Amino acid sequence: MASNTRVSILDYFNIVFEGENGKIESNCKACGTRIQAKRTVTSNFVTHLKRKHQAMYDEFVKKKDVKREAYSSGTMQNFAANTGGSSRASFQSTGTMAKFDRSDPRQALISEAIAKMIIRDLQAVHIVENEGFRELLQLLEPRYTPEPSHYIQQQLLPAYAYQVQLATKQALTGAESCSVTLDLWRGGAGVGAGTSGYLGVTCHFITTDWQIKSALLACLHLTGHHIPQRVLSEFDEISHAHGIAGKVFRVVADPSPCDTRPPFRLPGFSLHCNGEDEEEEEDYSSDEETRGGEGKDMVAGKDTDNSLGQCLGRCRIDCFARSLGLCVREGLHSSTQISIALTKAACFYNYVIATVAPEKLGQVFGSGVTPAAATQASASPAYRHWNVQLKTVRRMLESVDFLEDIIDRQDLALSAPEKALLRELVEVLEPFEEATDMVQLDKHVSISLALPCVLGLRKHLSETSTRHCTGIVMGLAQALDRRLAGILEDPLYVTATTLDPQFKLSWSSDLDWHKQVLLEEIAKHTQAVSPPEPSPEAQPSPSKRSKLFSFIKQRPTTQAKSVEQELAAYLHEEPTDEEPLHYWKRKSIDFPLLSQVAKKVFTVPATTTSVDRIFSTIGKTLRPERCRLLPKNLETLIYLKANYRILWT
């Protein structure tokens, strides 16, 4: 009978608890792992088999695919007759194709794929109710039963979030220490103007095998006028919930948490912008205007900084990437002349992209540049960063004479002084662009880069001589001293840079003083390991093996080295380009005390986190008037998108 041959995913699990609403807890028969789900939602069980027990999963799918294979061979009706089940035949009495059971692995995998699409693309969940989307599903797989949006919102996505929480807690139990990033995002007019925002708490830690891991611990919706107090209370609660309250080494936050403006763009350089973008740039064109306007709706800027600083104490440090961006912004705002030249350059570039043939554009900007591609690129979040826009200005200036010859609008051509001004600007900002590119990588970038970057930028500005950008050079130098000069004497940054094998103390102008700073800082974060003293009455008797190989020189007993000895031996080695974590994984036995500190300082990121980059896209992709997302649903989507690799790698 067909009913006797029916396969259920629960055949591979032992049910140990059954609660209300069909909730069950089961242990995997193969490994004993506890899985929680509902009888009607079996994707957790299917996913576990797929990840952990491939052979069992293949067996399960093979059994479930018997009918599917019969479909493809055109013998389904014979198959139904042979199995004796007209009600379970592939075609119902109406002649339509039978739908998958809820427990069918194909049904679960398609639902999972839809959820992954919603998470990765930050789509509104109600997309599954759209007529066009359902027609597409019907065409691709007519046996699939579309899941309602409330099922995805209330069951599927929360189930994935629960899996992430369990995996994160388990990973953090083995972490010796960690660092945390606090990212605060305030919504615009459509997302709870002024008094509404989101807090992202991201944890960074190094595993026992020296792999850096990051996980978003929580994304929380904040409302009201007491955001600093809420941030601190939520952070404290999250830390205790995840068992990291006593492990947090540093807390990284923006220099001005209330300053939640979009990424800084070159002033006046608007590429393919619509009216909305122009208005946004206008709103955020001045630091003073923002501090006096919208910023006060959510928090009073200085009060927020002081509250976070006082409560977090020495654990809190400013995000280096954000501070570097503020230096560039303040430096460029010191010159009004540059904005005029950049505005004209943007008009020229926009006209070239819209009118010049793609084959000629390829000669200047690369083969992949077309009007459509350029428009799409300029609308992306990355194109809103000043360093990405500066690359466009550079490429345009390299071929500006050629471009002016092939367009019919001479009124858009740049004058000789404007070209000279822009070329000087590119030259002045090139090291700042390089530093920004280094700390904005997708991978984890530690603060060991911060101190060398500041020294390099200082040296560059002191040696730069310009005719048109003198004010910008002075503005950049002043901003650099005001915001980042403290890094040069901060023990944390001195330690992180020195423990980076590519730098060590090669940058130092006062070796003795920096060595003393290092020793004092390392002493705070190390626990001396003393070798056990041998007992005189417990001397091992020589074995046959030791007699046989007695001619081999015995290795002397390793004596524990002091911090001073370890540091001297470490600095005696030549710097290397080896990745810091690879180096310390290899050298942790030779330098046990230094490696303890390295495992802490390299958890501190120099750049913004993945959730901060997600926040930067929310204003465009998830406006409530377009997607009707409730705050709780948005929290879940952000949480799963930031932790996507934990579930699906």
From TrEMBL:
GO molecular function: protein dimerization activity
Biased composition annotated in UniProt, kind: Basic and acidic residues: 288-301
Domain called HAT C-terminal dimerisation: residue spans: 571-643
A Pfam cross-reference name: Dimer_Tnp_hAT
Acidic residues: compositionally biased ranges: 276-287
Region of interest called Disordered, as start-end residue ranges on this chain: 270-301, 526-545
Transmembrane segments: none
GO BP annotations, alphabetical order: regulation of transcription by RNA polymerase II
Annotated GO CC locations: nucleus
UniProt name for this protein: Zinc finger BED domain-containing protein 4
Gene source species: Clupea harengus
